[in-house]
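[Q] Does anyone have a clean structure-token version of this?
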Amino acid sequence: MSDSAYNVLFLCTGNSARSILADAYLNHRGRGRFHAYSAGSHPTGRVDPMVLSLLQRCGMPVSELRSKSWDEFLGPAAPQLDFVITVCDRAAGEICPVWPGQPVTAHWGVPDPVAVQDEGDTTRAVAEAFRILQRRVDLFMCLPISSLDRMSLRERVAEIGKR
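[A] Here you go.
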């Protein structure tokens, strides 16, 4: 684990909604204790506009958010990851890279809000995905990370995804 801020990577397939929401929220709420990142196994290349709008309405910065590949977190210049959390079922089922440093991994599946076809329903789905991720990130930030052994920590982080 890091001696300073913990580095957390949220993964999804497209890196356009769920992983972006979790990234932005943890960076906003966990400033100083956590540094969040997000990436996708097959990034779309753009962040969903409804996600950006919601985050802006919540007072979170969005200028640096972008859809990117998980390959950016594999090279020698990549940050040392403490946690890697998948937030979509497709990414959880994919064969993930071997992350340097053996970070704690977990799955926090959330339904894909951008898969909803109707715009009004998509807006509600994005808000619901954000609510779920906020709750999980809040629980994650409450964990006594430095006092838990690795196995207990992995179990506790995984349990958050089941709530």
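[Q] Thanks! Anything notable?
[A] DSSP finds five helices and four strands in the chain.
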